[in-house]
Amino acid sequence: MLTLTQTRERLQALGMHPSKKLGQNFLVDPNIVRKSLDLAKVTAGDTVVEVGPGLGTLTGGLLERGAEVYAVELDHRLAASLRETRGDEPRFHLAEADAMDKPLGDFPGDRPFKIVANLPYAISTPWMEKILAGPLPEKMVLMLQREAAERFTAEPGGKNIGAVSLFLAAAYVRRPGHAVARSCFYPAPDIDSVLLHLERREHPRSFAPQTRALMRKFFTQRRKQIGSLARQEKSPALDHWLAVLESAGLPPTLRPEALPLDAWLQLDQALQSA
Ligand SMILES: C[S@@+](CC[C@H](N)C(=O)[O-])C[C@H]1O[C@@H](n2cnc3c(N)ncnc32)[C@H](O)[C@@H]1O
C-alpha cells in the first residue's frame, strides 16, 4: 500500500502529473483499500480483474491476499512502472490497453472471477455496459463517481433510472454504497466518490443485444410515453408488449422511467419470441 508521500514520490520519479482526463486520482487510504478487498471477500485462489491499476495500490492488496490479478491500464508510463514493480509476480497479468477495448484485460473469461477497481470515472457507464454483456463476474466492488453510483443503483420511478440501472438490476443485487472522502485520494478529486458493492444474483437475467439497444433508445426519449415510443418502432412484437403491459395494469401513457424491471424483461421476451 503506497502512502500519500510514496504516491507523490513515485509520480515525481515517473515525471508524471496526474491526468484529469484519465481520472488519475490514486487511493492513498489503507482503510479504503482494505474495505474494497473485504467487501469483495478476496481470498487466495480468487481471480480478480482490476481496471486502471495505476501505481498498483489496490493491486498490491489483491496480490497479498493471494488472488490472481488481471489488470488493464491505458497509461503507458503507469503500465511500465507496474511491470517494473510487479513484473516478477506470476499471479499478475497486465494488459496495456484501453478498458473499453479490453474490459477484462487479458482475462480469458474461462472461470469464475470478481472485479475490484477504482474506476476511471469517464468510462464507468459504457464499460459497465460491456461487462454486463458477459461473462458476468460473481462480485464487483467499484469506486465510482457519486452520480454513476446513483445511476447504477436507481430504481424505477426515480430520476436517475436509465437503461444501465435496469441491466444491472436484472443480474446483480446492488448493495448500498459507502461514501468515500475526497481526502482518500491523491490528488483529491473535485467530485464525490462512492464505493459500490454488487453481487451477482443466483439466477442473473440478461437482455438480448436488440433489447438493450431498444431500451437505450427509449431512455434517450424519456419524456415520451411508452405507447408512442413502442408504436414508432412499427413492430408486432412491440404491439404485443404494449398489450401485455396493459393487462398487467401498466398503461401506455407511462414513461420509460416508471416501468418496473419485469416490464423490460417482458419486452425482451416479446422480442425474442418474435
Ligand atoms: C482512479 S485511478 C485508479 C488508480 C489506482 N487503481 C488506485 O486506486 O490508486 C484510474 C486509473 O485508470 C487508468 N485509466 C484511465 N482510463 C483508462 C482506460 N480507458 N482503460 C484502462 N485504464 C484507464 C488511469 O491511468 C488510472 O491509472
Automatic annotation (TrEMBL):
One GO MF term: RNA binding
Domain Ribosomal RNA adenine methylase transferase N-terminal: 32-202
Top-level division of the source organism's lineage: Bacteria
E.C. numbers: 2.1.1.182
One of the Pfam families matching this protein, by short name: RrnaAD
Compartments it resides in: Cytoplasm
Signal peptide: none
PANTHER family in the record: DIMETHYLADENOSINE TRANSFERASE, DIMETHYLADENOSINE TRANSFERASE-RELATED
Protein purpose: Specifically dimethylates two adjacent adenosines (A1518 and A1519) in the loop of a conserved hairpin near the 3'-end of 16S rRNA in the 30S particle. May play a critical role in biogenesis of 30S subunits.
Keywords of this entry: Cytoplasm, Methyltransferase, RNA-binding, rRNA processing, S-adenosyl-L-methionine, Transferase
GO cellular component: cytosol
Positions contributing to S-adenosyl-L-methionine binding: 25, 27, 52, 73, 98, 118
Name listed for the protein in its UniProt record: Ribosomal RNA small subunit methyltransferase A
Broad class of the protein's primary localization: cytoplasm
Reactions catalysed, as given in the entry: adenosine(1518)/adenosine(1519) in 16S rRNA + 4 S-adenosyl-L-methionine = N(6)-dimethyladenosine(1518)/N(6)-dimethyladenosine(1519) in 16S rRNA + 4 S-adenosyl-L-homocysteine + 4 H(+)
Recorded family membership: Belongs to the class I-like SAM-binding methyltransferase superfamily. rRNA adenine N(6)-methyltransferase family. RsmA subfamily.
Organism: Ruficoccus amylovorans
